[in-house]
Amino acid sequence: MKERLIISLGNSVFRDKNEKTFDVLAEKIIKLSSRFDIAVVFDSEVSEQELSLALKNANINQNHSKGVVSLSIQPLVNKTDPRFKTPSAFTGPEFSYYGALKIAKEKGWVMKKDGEKKYRHFVPSVLPADILERREISELLLGRKIVLIKNTSPVYRTKVLKLLRPAEAVVDRDRVAEKIAEVTKTDFLVFLMDESQVSLNFKTEAELKLRLLTPEEVKRYLNSNQFDSETIGKKLTIASKFAKKRKTSILCSVKNLEDALKSTSGTTIS
């Protein structure tokens, strides 16, 4: 039985990058599929069509016959999650000031300025309690498919009839990837980002690259605020949570993905 690999694909990986980035990632995933059963988790900001086509073309180029399947999921959340009380994330399209006033009145949304002139829906960012499509994902992985998992709006269950209802919130893609990795008994969880490695004192003369970390070391660094980026801190927190389950988390870029999985590059938490 192959080991399982879940990849959390950061939105910024393809933003303002060479158009061949999709092709480079696809070629690497197809090569890795000889060793791993692979699922890639992404948000709507990443083009599902471009990613799917790149993987299918990489299949052809490498004379593989890996099936590529796309699946949209809705994370299940708990309505009692205290994070519902404190909106903290933007979602959806941009509106002008007057457009924001109109939609706030019509739908009762909290609209907040995002940038100099645009406004967006401001919602809570909550934790995933479960993945409703966990069985489908596991079956596709067992069937040796490369699974593209699109993270969409979360849902919750009503108290009485246990019916599903849309939650006015978002669930962070990295947290969704970690939950999928947990419920599908995955071996490796990779967070793809712009940088090839996590560093302390980033882009300074005292920069220190970190290759191997334990969850305890991550906690110590976080408590002493030694990471310049809030985004990196969040990723490391999630990666550390997965590593505590005697699994392996990796932070790396598309370029050094293969080497990171060999523990010769990237930042590994285990």
Give a description of the structure.
The protein has two domains: 228 residues, Carbamate kinase; 35 residues, no CATH class. The mean pLDDT is 92. The protein has 270 residues and is of the alpha/beta class. The protein has eight helices and 17 strands.
**What is the N-to-C order of secondary-structure elements (H for helix, E for strand)?**
EHEHEEEHEEEHEEEHEEEEHHEHE
Strand order of the largest sheet: 3-9-2-1-12-16-17-15
Taken from the alpha-carbon principal axes, the silhouette is globular
Helix percentage range:
25-40%
Q: Span from first to last CA?
A: 22 Å
Radius of gyration: 19 Å
Mean pLDDT: 92
- Counted by DSSP, the helix tally is 8
Tell me the count of domains.
Answer: 2
Report the biggest beta sheet as strand number plus sense, adding barrel if it closes. 8 strands, mixed
Low-pLDDT stretches are none
Please report the total strand number as a whole number. 17
Question: Can you give me a brief rundown of this structure?
Answer:
The chain is α/β, with parallel strands linked by helices and 270 residues long. Helices cover 31% and strands 27% of the residues. Strands 3-9-2-1-12-16-17-15 form an 8-stranded mixed β-sheet, sandwiched between helices. Strands 5-7-6 form a 3-stranded antiparallel β-sheet. The protein has a two-stranded antiparallel sheet with strand order 4-8.
Q: Keywords, please?
A:
270 residues; alpha/beta; Carbamate kinase; three-stranded antiparallel beta sheet; 8 helices; 17 strands
Per-chain topology:
Blueprint: E1 3-9, H1 21-32, E2 36-42, H2 48-61, E3 68-73, E4 75-76, E5 89-95, H3 97-107, E6 111-113, E7 119-123, E8 130-131, H4 134-142, E9 146-151, E10 155-157, E11 164-166, H5 173-183, E12 188-192, E13 198-200, E14 208-210, E15 212-213, H6 215-223, H7 230-243, E16 248-252, H8 257-261, E17 267-269
Parallel strand pairs: 1-2, 1-12, 2-9, 3-9, 12-16, 15-17
Antiparallel strand pairs: 4-8, 5-7, 6-7, 10-11, 13-14, 16-17
